[in-house]
Amino acid sequence: MIDMKFKRKSALILSWCFVLLCMVIIFYYSHQTAELSSETSRGLIKMIFEKFGIEFSSHFIRKAAHAIEFGGLCLAFNIAYFVLFFKFSPFVSLVSTVFYASTDELHQYFIQGRACQVRDIFVDFCGALLVTAAVSVIYFAFKSVMKKREVQKCQF
Fold first, then answer.
1. Tell me: the pLDDT tens digits for 74-125?
2. Is there a domain that residue 99 lies in?
3. Within 13 Å, how many C-alpha atoms sit on residue 23's CB side?
4. Residue 15 to residues 4, 26, 82, 100, 147: CA-CA distances in angstroms?
5. 3-class DSSP state for residue 111?
6. Where are the alpha helices (DSSP H) in 86-117?
7. Residue 3 lies in a domain
8. What's phi and psi for 76, nearest 5 deg?
9. CA 96 – CA 23 distance, rounded (Å)
10. Which among 45, 91, 96, 134 counts the fewest CB atoms within 10 Å?
11. Structural domain count of the chain
12. Distance between CA 107 and CA 86 in Å, rounded?
């Protein structure tokens, strides 16, 4: 039988590896020069158009990518903090995500053709906030269902 300490350590390591993986992916894309980043956006726009017949502007794709990347990071932080603290910590996850978004924008300041833009931090915050809201709804719905099951078990 697997020891509970081993399970806990494994869950902690895996959850924080997920956070680190998200950070590495974000750093990788942030470290691209403006030219390479634009090329990546154009490739994605072309792929979406070929598969679905929908055309998006480069600006929309770039902002959506920001929101999705940082929404994913916020999800990873929510999982990691839940495993670490044994409780749901959406505010801590949101603050951690926005802090990393700020450092990411600062990092982009030093990349050729890129800039440090406060509005990108706001877009990152919005992506993280949307994920936090969705995770909160799921968490509290699950908690409510489990509480009802517990009450039903006690009645028999």
1. 999 999 999 999 888 999 999 999 999 999 999 998 988 888 889 999 999 9
2. yes
3. 17
4. 16, 17, 9, 17, 26
5. coil
6. 90-108
7. no
8. -60, -45
9. 11
10. 91
11. 1
12. 33
pLDDT digits (tens, 9 = 90+) for 61-78: 888 888 999 999 999 999
Overall pTM > 0.90: no
Q: Using the CB atoms, write b or e for 56-72: b if 16+ within 10 Å.
A: eeeeebbbebbbebbbb
For 81-86, the CB contacts below 8 A with 24+ separation are: 82/15, 83/8, 83/11, 83/12, 83/15, 84/12, 84/15
Q: Is the Cα torsion angle 13, 15, 20, 21 positive or negative in sign?
A: positive
**Considering the domain boundaries, does residue 1 fall inside one?**
no
Residue 66 located in a structural domain: yes
55: containing domain: 11-155
